[in-house]
Every structure is written in structure tokens, then in C-alpha cells.
From TrEMBL:
GO terms for molecular function: medium-chain fatty acid-CoA ligase activity. Residues 309-380 form the AMP-binding enzyme C-terminal domain. This is Acyl-CoA synthetase (AMP-forming)/AMP-acid ligase II. GO terms for biological process: fatty acid metabolic process. It holds the Pfam family AMP-binding_C. InterPro entries: AMP-bd_C, AMP-bd_C_sf, ANL_N_sf. Keywords: Ligase. It comes from Agromyces cerinus subsp. cerinus. Belongs to the ATP-dependent AMP-binding enzyme family.
Amino acid sequence: MSDWLRGPRGGLALAFGGDAVRYGELADAVAAAVLPSGDGLVACPVGTDPVRLITLVLACLERGRPVLVGGDAADAERISAALPLGTELALLTSGSSDPAGVRRAVARTNASWLASAAPLAEVAGIRANDRIAVTGPLHVSMHLYAALHALWSGAAVGDELSGASTLHATPTRLARLLEGDTLPAAAVVAGAAMSDALRERAAARGIRVTEYYGAAELSFVAVGRGGSLAPFPGVEVELRPTAAGRELWARSPYLALGVVGGGMLRRDDDGFATVGDLAEPVGPEMFRIIGRGDAAITTAGATVLAEDIEARLLALPGVVAAVVLGEADELLGERVVAVVELDETTDATAVIAAARARLSTAELPRRWFVSAIPTTMSGKPARGLLRVALAAGTLGPAIPSTSERSGA
């Protein structure tokens, strides 16, 4: 069987949409899969049935045929010639800051994902008798990896929370799942930093949370519990000073080969790479992610980080999700704007008052909007869509902070 299929032939492998597939059945389907003629990039577009997607990806990896996940035949034709030599897996992605869904392809080898399988199983405590729930579409890299990792572990993977022992989710998705009755005993959370309030909610439900920081371009970089992260096994981390803060660079066997279509990935001659995220040390070999350097807002001569403010807003009672944006201002250069999603019992004025006690004058949003936060397909807040809505004036009525009412 494939390097990714390590469960017994009679064991449950996949359970999506009510369909159960055993390991033996999946292995036979992979062996029998018919790929397009030639040796070109095989397209696996958005909307592909999960079982079909996994079968097709495994068949391509097994036969040394490059596969494009999340793109159609036209996408495959567009990027094929630009893919780095040795590409086995290309993942079409759009960043959360891209309002128009600009598509980029992250190119990597199969070995770069396989290398991290054993370390993740160890740090997250995933075993062969587990049942894993993925909470997003499989054409998104973190969810596809979660599904393949479950198969590598010999576990079962599907889309149902009922009966699952571990789920994979973004913080936004986990926050919404915590409102329900059925939750596994463990969660692997990535895609953005968790707030202390969300950790407390998960702990109150008895959920053991493993947090990791990574990116489609870097794969796993750091892991931990309680907000403080340490390098993921096999990863070297350097925090390099920049004007915006300390930029995180990583070197590991998990890095992608490259990105087609732009993006934030940068490399140096020593094998380190970065996507521009900033971090700050919190102890020996420990740090926390504070945001992306390109999310810096310069207001009244001070530079603040949108994601840092968001983390503090998410710690406030009643805040379900939050996005902070910079808006052009003739006097300030930029002013800080917050879009918050609140639970049904929370009033915006109470949140603004609480924020005033937690944030500095530069960090305090000058305008507030209460709205449901849209998300990308990977479950991250869709900053780009909110930025467009802010510019178009379609976010609804703004709730000014006290500082704006007073003209400060």
C-alpha cells in the first residue's frame, strides 16, 4: 500500500458524507485509479468528493505523477511550466488578505509532508485507534494534511464530530464548534493564534488542545500548549530583527520547494525561509506569534500590529471573532478599525469599554463594526473581503469609540 496507508485492510479509513471506506478498499481504489494520459500535472479541483480526492492524490503520489489540489485543468495548464523541478504535490491557495482570491500554487515533495508525520503523531498524541475529524474542505492544505496524517497513523478520518477522538480546526472554527454539544476530547488547532479566552473555553469543555504554527509554504514550524510555542521537532527557528519586529525564519525538511504566482515566501542562502510572520520570545527556546509584518498599521506615528490587537479583542468576553484593519485618515495617516462578531448576549458598547482598558491609545480602534466575520475556505477570517467592504461602505453603521467621539 501507499506510504500514507498504514492501517489494516479491514480497518475503517474514511467516513465522509455517511460513506465508510476500509483501508483495503481504499488501497485497491488507489491501485485501480485511472489518471489522465501523459505525465503532466493532474488536476483535482475544488468540489471533488473527499474520497475521490484522497484516492486521486494517493494514486498520483504512488505513481510519481504531480497532482494539483484545488485547481482545475485550466489551472494545471497555467502553472505547469512554472513549477519547480521535483514538484509532486501542488496546492492552490489564496491568502486571507486577498480580496479577489488571488490563486497561488505551493509546490512541495511528498517526502516533505511524510517527514513530519511521526513528529505530529507524537506531539498531538494521535494513535491508530483514533478517529479524526477534519472541519474544513480537503483542498485546503491543513485539512488535506490532517486527513493524510490520520491514514499514516492507521486511524480513521471523516467529517463527523460524533465518535471522533480528535479534531483539526482553525481557532475561528473551534470557537463556533464550542457552541455545540458534540466535541472530541482533543483538538489540533492551527491557522491563527488562539486567544486565552478560547483556550479557557476549550479547557472548560475538557478538551486537550495542541496548537501549532505553520504555513502552507513552511509546513510545521512550532508547536505548544497555552500560547507559548517551541520549535516543532526537526525545525530550526531564528527570530531576526526588522523595522516591524522580529521576523520568524525556519529551516527544516518540511519546507515547500517554492510558490508559483507570488506570495510571501522568501529564502536565504543558508536554507532558512519566512513568510513574514513576526514573533516575540517569551522564554528560552519559546516564543509567541504576534502577526504578520505586512499587517502593520501606522497611526499617528505609531506602528501597531493588526493581529496583536485582534488577539486582545478575542480575549474580551462575548467576542466570537475579530478582524482589525487600517483605514486611510488625513490626520493620522491610518486609523485602526475593528470588525467584531459578538455572541447574542453581548453589547458592543461593553466591548468597546473593555477594549479601552486593555489597549493603548494607538491600538484602540477609532471605528467599530459589529458583523459576522466571513471566512476563507480554510476557516481563516477573510480580511480581504472585509477590507473591500470597509472601502465600499457596506459593513453597516459604525460604532465610534469614545476617543473618536471626543475628537482624540
